[in-house]
Amino acid sequence: MSSTDQLEVEVKFSVDDATPVPDFSSVEGVAGVGAEQRFTLSATYYDTPDLQLTRNKITLRRRSGGPDEGWHLKLPGTRGRREVHAPLDAGDATDSHHVRPPRALLETLHEALPAAPADDDSADFIAIAQVDNERHVTDVMVDSPSSRGDAESGKSATSYKGAEFCDDHVSSRGLLEGGQAQHWREWEIELSPEILDDRNDGDGQRDNHSFADDFLDRLSQHALAAGAKKSSSPSKLVMAMGDTMPD
After folding, report:
1. Rounded distance between C-alpha atoms, residue 92 and residue 84, angstroms
2. C-alpha to C-alpha distance for 104 and 111, rounded to whole angstroms
3. What are the tens digits of pLDDT across the range 65-120?
């Protein structure tokens, strides 16, 4: 069974229902804004009965809907989060009290957290939260390195997706004892893999992290100016678990 591995770098914002979506086309460095797409996402989050993953800031979910549906394992890192994906039909989630995640994710999880189950035979996971989301997605484009230098010379510019803006309308339900139903709206801005791999502008002088971080900061400042606030919650799971979140 195959799995994929990528870096997730994003910022989250809390917004009320009346806050209008910002137009990022005027932000410095933005080459264009794509048409809005809408997806209906439904995710169940899992953990060991003693919540080993949640206590170690690790997230395991199985999500249907959207272009990246499947199993997602998120691990903390020094920059963003490491996100490992496996197909939706991998593993076994038919019994919410005895879930078997995909073997590839279990192996990755065990490397990061040796106390966690290492294989299918020892897997013992339960459903801890349900999160449903109507997601409105807009791609924010950025000029390619070569076209930045060509702008003054009049040569045609090329661009690629630099970030993804998500306007999320979320409903959640905590599945542990004492869990409650909640509703909220939030924005996410996530850097694309392409901009994180965008090494330099042709002369080898620009650090890709600095360029990507500067771009993300400009988009974030524009979102704040539109009425958003930096989210006090690091994830939808934390919000969904509410008072059942372990210390």
Report:
1. 17
2. 11
3. 999 999 999 999 888 899 999 999 999 999 998 999 999 999 999 999 998 887 76
> Residues 6 or more apart from 203 whose CB is under 8 A from it?
none
Token pair recorded at residue 130: 């349900």
Q: Which amino acid is at 163?
A: A
Q: Are 71 and 108 in contact (CB under 8 A)?
A: no
3-state helix/strand/coil string of the chain: CCCEEEEECEEEEEECCCCCCCCHHHCCCEEEECCCEEEEEEEEEEECCCCHHHHCCCEEEEEECCCCCEEEEEEECCCCEEEEEECCCCCECCCCCCEECCHHHHHHHHHHCCCCCCCHHHCCEEEEEEEEEEEEEEEEEEECHHHHHHCCCCCCCCEEEEEEEEEEEEEEEECCCCCCEEEEEEEEEEECHHHHCCCCCCCCCCCHHHHHHHHHHHHHHHHHHCCCEECCCCCHHHHHHHHHCCC
Amino acid letter at 201?
Answer: D
Sign of CA dihedral 147, 148, 150, 154: positive
**Distance (Å, whole) CA 88 – CA 2:** 11
Q: For strands 10-15 and 4-8, give the pairing.
A: unpaired
The Cα 121–Cα 123 span in angstroms is 6
Q: Compute the residue count for the chain.
A: 247
Q: Which pLDDT does position 28 carry in this prediction?
A: 94
Considering only CA atoms, give the Rg of the chain. 19
The answer to whether the CB of 177 falls within 8 A of the CB of 244 is: yes
